[in-house]
Amino acid sequence: MNYRLFGRTGVYISPLVLGCMMFGQKTDLVNTRKIIDRAIDEGINFLDTADVYGKGASEQFVGDALKRNGNRENVFLATKVNGRMSDHPNHIGNSRLHIIEGCENSLRRLQTDHIDLYQLHRPDPHIAIDESLRAMDDLVSSGKIRYSGTSNFGSWQIVESLWASEKHSKGRFVSDQSPFNLADRRAEREHIPMCQTHGLAFIPWSPLAGGGLTGKYKRIKKQITGTRFGDETDPLKLKRFSSGVIDITDALEPIALAHAATVAQVALAWVIAQPGVTAPIIGPRTMQQLEDNLGALDLQLSGEELSLIDELAQPGTNVADYYEASFKPNQHHF
Which of 162, 192, 250, 300 has its CA 20 to 30 A from that of 136? Predict the structure, then answer.
């Protein structure tokens, strides 16, 4: 396993992050345990979840699996706070109150005494960033978290946070996770260079465009039932799929065939190989999906193939609306 430095922390992580969003929702406890055990056996040492996934169910399943296999100290464990956890008016957002209470609840569900990376899941326009930074800094000082990071922040919001950290002498964010894949490369315009300039790890989510780049979707009016874009009714999420996505997967098929690989493995290997990418986050629902994702680690794309892929999806462009949609903050409706 070719481990990579996590920003400027000095921590080494695997080139794939095991995203745990499906656990406790579409993946039951037995299969969650199997997937986590298999990933760790293959050298994956970074697990990423969030309190809002299944309203705490994902964290509970991850905590159970790590306690059962005894590997808690062998993994870099990350979770997030921000999403609404109940109807209580303060169980949402990036306030000091919600961050600290959320951390305590996540520690309990994860059955651990510390979280390695605690992330703000979304920016919060209602809270000054220095308020959130103070809460994160106190959690680091108390030993409850090791590092803090962001998810789905705009480049300007991260730079603002770095300015506030310096001004108020508080710990800085060490990482960001935002969407980046062949169907939406807009992060290359500003976001990835910003992370590189300021030494932040970049761990992109949805490297397979929500399954759109797996090759299972065809040029038909209605996709097959039982798939995300066959069953999805959320208009925002449906914007993340288009005929342009299918154009890309069709063109990736010859490359996949040449490597005896799958289209998904080619699309994932491309993300892993991009400058400024620390490690993409995969989100397998089944063991079969995990095994397919792991196969991307052994796939080396040639310079010629990378140039061909650039022709399919021009740097900095998009054919599906992924990147900007993720920055819409939660609304505090009561």
Answer: 192
Distance CA 94, CA 124 (A): 6
pLDDT tens figures, 72-120: 999 999 999 999 999 999 999 999 999 999 999 999 999 999 999 999 9
Q: What is the pTM of this model?
A: 0.92
- List the CATH number of the domain containing 210: 3.20.20.100
Which residue bears the tokens 């490359």? 255
DSSP string, 65-127: HHHHHT-GGGSEEEEEE-S--SSSTTSSSS-HHHHHHHHHHHHHHHT-S-EEEEEESS--TTS
Q: Among the options 3, 53, 147, 217, which is catalytic?
A: 53
pLDDT tens by residue, 154-172: 999 999 999 999 999 999 9
**Alpha carbon distances (Å) from 286 to 53, 272, 283:** 17, 21, 9
Residues of the domain holding 273: 4-327
Question: Does the annotation mark 323 as catalytic?
Answer: no
Euclidean distance between CA atoms 132 and 134, whole angstroms: 5
pLDDT at 119: 98
**43, 14 in Cβ contact below 8 A?**
yes
Total of domains in the chain: 1
Q: Are strands 76-81 and 115-120 parallel, antiparallel or unpaired?
A: parallel
